[in-house]
Specification:
Helices cover about 5% and strands about 50% of the residues. The protein is rod-shaped, with a radius of gyration of 36 Å.
């Protein structure tokens, strides 16, 4: 009798293994954005149904029981392993099955760069979290300019207010957009110290402007003698007089005015020349 019971047990086990080999589950989607809704379906293609119980583990803390389709909400981004346990003793696992990506942040900042000219604006998308995911960028500026990098440097033709929009997306198709009104204005600025000693650092007294407006620069000694004059959209003084001779170290007075009223900006001040 013991021998007969042993044979029956082997036959039963063989049927169970054959049946489990035909069992699987699939998701209607495996990749998406935060708050991703996924429907899982159970399949049993075996000729003899030996499954009594099916226990689901969706990897996000949610579980379920039954052969029916299961709809699960993945509220936060992450990588999830999903499994089902058959008859409380055999588990089918799909490692890293569901991948949920965060929505990008299309917030951007901008700043005027005096070094690039007062009409030049540097646009930058804020850092993404995580920043290891590949992102795509689409800039749309009101003057028709387009861009596809995280950092965009653009020179406008005139001062004013311009709409700037950014769309950021990732490989899962998650996207975010934002639009800001950017004020572009003219500036006129320069340093109060320069050292024309040919060391490659701070060798010029530079008039930082928009690079478009023509300005006139006049430089005077402490005694009131005009030692230099230039007129151009971009003005750089190397510490020499009009004849090309090096001027002595000291304090000089300058006047910067636009030519023919092309700008409302004027500037006067003192600059120290060191050698």
């Amino acid at each position: 009798m013991k021998f007969l019971r042993y044979i029956v047990l082997l036959v039963s086990l063989s049927i169970s293994i054959t049946g489990l080999g035909q069992i699987t589950f699939v998701a209607d989607t495996t990749t998406g954005c935060s708050s991703l809704e996924v429907t899982f379906s159970y399949f049993d293609a075996s000729l003899v149904d030996t499954v009594v119980t099916v226990d689901w583990d969706f990897g996000n803390g949610q579980t379920a029981t039954g052969k029916e389709s299961q709809t699960v909400l993945y509220a936060t981004d992450g990588i999830y392993t999903v499994s089902i346990t058959i008859n409380s003793n055999t588990t089918i696992i799909r490692q890293a099955y569901i991948r949920v990506y965060p929505y990008p942040d299309a917030t951007f900042v901008w700043s005027d760069s005096v070094e690039l000219g007062s009409y030049a604006v540097v646009f930058a998308n804020v850092p993404q979290d995580p920043d290891t995911i590949p992102y795509q960028y689409q800039w749309i500026l009101e003057d028709g300019t387009l861009g596809d990098t995280r950092l965009l440097v653009h020179s406008f033709q005139a001062e004013g207010q311009y709409r700037a929009a950014l769309i950021v997306s990732n490989q899962a198709g998650c996207a975010d957009s934002s639009m800001r009104l950017v004020e572009v204005f003219d500036v006129l600025d320069c340093a109060n110290v320069f050292t024309p000693n040919n060391d490659g650092m701070n060798d010029y007294f530079v008039i930082n402007s928009n690079g478009v407006t023509i300005y006139n620069l006049q430089v005077f000694s402490r005694s009131g003698v005009k030692v230099f004059q230039a007129e151009a959209p971009v003005i750089m003084w190397d510490g020499r007089n009009q004849s090309g001779q090096e001027l002595l170290p000291g304090t000089y007075y300058y006047i910067v005015k636009p030519v023919q009223g092309t700008s409302r900006f004027e500037k006067t001040g003192f600059v120290e020349l060191y050698r």
